[in-house]
Fold each of these.
Amino acid sequence: MTTISDHMTGAGSIGTSTTSTGATPPVVAISVLGRFEMVIGGRDVARAIGRRDATRLAKFLALAPNRRAHREQIVDALWPESSLDTVQNRLHKAAHYLRRATGLADSVVLSEATVALLPDTPVEVDVFAFERLAQHGLTNGDAGDIDRAIALYRGDLLPDDPYEEWVEYDRQRLRGRLRELLRTSGRFHRLIAIDPTDEDGHVGIMRSMLRSGDRSGVLRQYAQLNRVLNDELGVEPGPEARALRDLALNAPSPDPGRLLPRPDVTFYRTAGRTRCSGLHRPIGRQSHAPH
C-alpha cells in the first residue's frame, strides 16, 4: 500500500511556479488534519465545492504523491461499485465542479492515464508539513520542530470521512506518530486523552506527581490506569506503574512531627502494613507518629 509518508518529501512543499500564461498562481493551503479546507488566495473554497464526489476527489488527490493519481487508483478508491461508463461520467463531473469552486480552469487536469490537482500551483498540505516536522524533530531531538508538528495536528486525518477505507491506514499511522511526539515531549495528559490505554502516559503523570509529593494523586492515577486497562484490554498495569504505586504507598509523610527516612532506611510490607528498618531522625516534635 502506498502511504502518505512514502511521498512526504517535497509532496506538500511550496515552490515557485507560473501558469501557462506566465502569471504567478495563488498560493494554496490544503488542510486535512482535523477538518478539510482548501484555501486559495485567502478564501476557503471547500464548502463551495458542493458536490460530494468533487469533494472526495479533492481530498484523495490532496493526499496523493504530487497530488496526482492514476485513474484506476481513483476509481478503485472512490467508486469501486460503479460501472466503467458511470465512473467516467462521475469523474468528469467531479472535476468540473471542483474547477468551478476553485475558479481555476487548470485546478483539475485529466490526462488519458492520470488526474492531477493543481499541478502548476504552489500548494502546502498540512499533513506533509506535519510529517516533515515530526520526522526531523524525533530524529534530531529538535524540541521546536516537535512543538510545531504537534501544533499542526488539529485532529485526526479527515475526521468527517470515518468510513472511507482508503483513509483509515494513514489515519491510524498519523495518530500513532502524534502519540510518539506527545510521549517524547512529556505531554502525558494529552496523550492519555487521545488514548486512555497508553500506559506510558499514565506512568509519566504518576512520576510527575510523585516528584511533587502528591502521593494520593499517584494512587488515583494508578487506579484509573488499572481500571481502563482491565476494561479495555483485560490486562493489569506493568511493573513500572506498580513500582510507582508502591513508592506512593510506602513513602513517609513530610508533615511536622513525623519521621523522615534517612537514606539507609528500607521499607517493606508485612501482614498488610508498611514497616521499616534502619534509624530515623525525628523532625519537629519529639513524639513519634505511627507508620
Amino acid sequence: MAPLRRPTRRHTTSLRGAEGWFRTGLDTCKVRRMDNIRGKSIVITGAARGIGYATAQALLARGARVVIGDRDLDVLESAVAGISSLGQVSGHPLDVTDKESFAAFLDKARADGGGHIDVLINNAGVMPVGPFLDQSAQAIRSSIEVNFYGVLTGCQLVLPEMVKRRSGHIINIASLAGMVAVPGQIIYAGTKFAVVGLSTAMADEFAPQGVKVTAVLPTFTNTELISGTSPSAAQKPVEPSEIAAAIVKVLDKPKSRVSVPSWGKSFAAVTTLLPDRGRRWLNKKMGNDAVFLNLDAVLTQLGR
C-alpha cells in the first residue's frame, strides 16, 4: 500500500498594483503598466499651432491615434501634413463656440479613431489682454465662448460615452491665471478661473464613474498668445513642448491638477493667501503689475 502524501499546495498567481509582480512557483516576472496612450484615440482642439500642435507630436511619438481640430483651415491642413509622418493623425474643421460644429467634429474623430474617443484635450483658447475698459464687447464675448463655453461643450459631448464605458480622460488646458489673476488679464483670468473650477468639480463628480478629468495650468507660454508683451526675467516663458510633456505625464499617471512649471501651483496657492499689499508688492517685483498693460503692439486675438 502506497504511503499517504499530504496534498501539495498549488502556487497561485498574484498581481500587485498597476505595475506589479506575477508569480508562478519560483519564477517571477514584471508586469507592465497599462499604456494609457499607445493605440488610444485622442482628440485635441485648437491644435493647428502652439501647445495643441506640440501635444499632437508628443502623443503620436507614443503611438496614439490623434485627431486635431481648428477653425483656421489653412493652418490645420499644413499642421496635419507636417506631422503625418509621425503616426496616425487626421484633422477636421472645428469651431468650439458652435455646439453643432463641435458635435460634427467629434463624430468625424470617432470615425477616424475606431468608433470612440479615449481622451479629449480641450486646448482651444484666446487671450485678450490690456486695460479692462479698453476691451470690446466682441473680445469679451469671444473669450468667454472659446475659453469657457467651448470647454464646457466638449465635456458635455464626450462624457456620456466615457461614463457608459467607465473609462476616459478629459484634459482641460487652463492657466496659472486661473489661480492668480494679474492686471491686464481680467477677462482671460475670469474664464480660466471658471475652467479650473469646473475641472476640479468634474474630476470629483465623475471619478466614481471611471472618468478622469485634469486641469493643466501653464504659466507664460512661448506661443502667439503672448506676442506683443515683454515678460521680465522672472517670467521666463515655458515652451509648448514642456506643456506637451506634462500632458503625456498626466495621461501616464493621472491627477486632477498639474502646473507647468511644476512649482507654479504651489506658488499660486501661496500667493492667494497674501494680503493685498503683499500681493501687489510681489506683482510689481515680478513685473506682473504691468506686463499685460504696457503692450509693445496692438494684439490680435490668436489661438494657442
Amino acid sequence: MAPSRRERPSTQGRGAISSRSPRRRAGSPPPRELVEAGLSARKRLGQHFLRDRRILSRIVDAARLSPEDTVVEVGAGLGTLTAELAKRAGKVVAVEVDEGLCGYLRRRFESSANLSLVCADIRSQTPSQLLAAAGTQAPYLVVANLPYYIAAPVLRHFLEAAEPPSSLVVMVQKEVAESIAAGPGRMSLLGLSVQLYGSPRLLFTVPPSAFYPSPKVHSAVLRIDVREKPAVDVDDIERFFAFLRAGFSAPRKQLRNAISNGLGLEGNVVAERMTGAGVDPRLRAQALGLEEWAVLYRAFQDALPGKREAEEHR
C-alpha cells in the first residue's frame, strides 16, 4: 500500500527552509572487534578498517580461492577478511605489523588450524620465509588491503620476488589503481613496473564509508594475474627501470627533454636515437607502452648507469 500524503517523505530540496535546526550526523562507531581489542586506529600506520561485509565478500570472490590454495594476507588488521579467507583457502598466512592487533589476532584465531600469524613488516619477510614459517610452499596468492603509503613497495616486493604469487587481489587508493591498470596515454612508472610482471584489472571501487575511520579518498580493488615471465625481453631489469625513471623524471615535458635531463645527453642526440628507434621524440612518457619502452631502452643501453648504480637508485 502506498503511504498516505502525510507519511510520504518531503520532496523539498536541500535548500528548503525548515523550522527545525539541522541535526548533526554522529560519526560511525568503531567496529566491535576494535572495541573488544581495546585499541584504536593508528594514523601513523594508515589504518582504516574495512567494515562493509559486501565488499569483503567481493574481495574474497575475486581471489577465486579453493581448499587447495595458500593465501598470504598483508595487513590482517582485525581479522575480518582473514576469517573469510580461512573459510575458503587451505592455508592462510596472515601478516600484521601492529603488535596490539597481533595480540588480538592470536586470541581470535588460536583454534584456527589452517591459519598462521606472522607479526612483522611485510617488507622484512620474503615470500619464501613466510611460506616456510607456515609450513607450506609455493604456489600461493596474495590478498591485501594496503595502506596507501605502502602500496607500491609491497607490490614490488611480491612481483619482483624469487617466488612471486600466481595472483594478487589488492585494495589501494582509487587513483593508484587507475594508474596501475592504465594503458598508453595514461601510463605511469608504477603502472609499467606492475604490468612488466602481471596483467592488472580494476574490479570495483570502494567508498570511504566502507571503512572505519573513513579515509578522505575512494579506494579500488585490483586483480593482478602474474605472468610466467616479464612482458618484454630486456637484458637487465634494474637498468631497464633506471631508464624508465629517466623517462619519467619530467613527465610534463617532451620525452626527448626528459631523457636528455635524466641521462645527461644532448637533446639532439636523444632525438636522433629516438627517431632511429621509431619513437616520436615529441611524445611524453605516459604515451608509451612497455614494448616501446623496451625498444627505446635498447637504443640507449650504452648511456645507462652500470648495474650496481642502478640497484642503488632502485
Amino acid sequence: MTQRRIRAILALWLLAGMLCLATSACVAPPTAVSPNVASPLPSPTDPTAARDRAKNVLAAWAEAVARAGIHASVTPIGERTGQVGDWEASVGDNNKRSLMAGNVATVKELSEEAPPDGTVTWPDGTSTKVPLMAAQQAVGAISATTEAPCSDCKPILLTDAQLTSGPIQTTRGPATAPIWAFSVQGSTVKVTRVAIANAQFVPHPGEGDPELSPPVDSASGSVSGLELTVGFVGAPSPGAEPCGEDYTGEAVESDLAVVVIVTRHHHAPPQICAAVGARRTTTATLAAPIGDRVVLDLRAGTPVPVVPAP
C-alpha cells in the first residue's frame, strides 16, 4: 500500500467521527474504513529515529515561541482563518481558492490600533485575558496564509471589520475567544481570523515517517501529575490477537513542550490485515508535571488538545 493511500485511510478514520478527547477509558469500537482493503501492519517503531524526530519537533516549537517573543497563555490549534456562511455560486470558486491562498485585500485601510485585551473562556468556566491584534494586522495574518497558492485568483475584497467572539480549539481544549469578522464585497460571507496576538504558530516541519508513530490527536493529564495519556487511531484488537497491536508511550520533553512517541507492538507473526481502525490510548510517564506545556504530535509537529484530568 502506498504512503498516499495510508494517509488517505487515516484521514477517513478521523472524518468518520472517531475523534474524542483522550481519557484512559476513551476507546471506541472498531470502525471499518473498507472491508475490501487490506495492508501489511506498519513496521516496528525505530526508537532512535523517533527520538530524533521528537527532538526536531521540540526545537521547531521553541523557535516558534522565540519568534512570538512571549510564552502565550493561550495557544490556538488548527486553522485560524475561517468563514461564516457559504460562498455564492457566482464567486464561490474564486473566493474559496483565494481564501486558502491568503489572497485578500481591503477596500480601505482598517484600524492599526490594537483593541483592549480580550477574554478566552473554557467550558469549565475558567478564563484568561489575552492581548489582541489590530484589524489591519489580522488582515496581514490572513494574507500570510500560503496553504494553496492561487495565481489566477482575484483577491477577496474586505470592506470592514467587527470584533466578535466564537469557538476555537486550543491546547487546553475547545474555548470561546475573540475573533475578527470581515465583511466581503459582493458576498454575504464573513471572513474570520482568531484575534489573539502573539500566538505561537509552528509551520509544518515536514511530515514525519508514518512508521515512527500513529498520529496523536488528543491528550489528558493532571497539571501536577507525571502521567500523560494520548489518544490516536490504532488497531481494534490487542496484540494477543491476530492483526492486533499493543501500544506503549515514551515522553520526550523540553521546558516548553512534550512529544509522546507511541510504539506499536504487533501480534506475531506479521500479517496482512483489514484496514480497520479503533480509538486507542496509551500513557507515558513524564520527568516533570505537564504544567502549562503544550503536547505536540510527533508526525505533524503541531499541538494537540490537552484535557486536564483531576
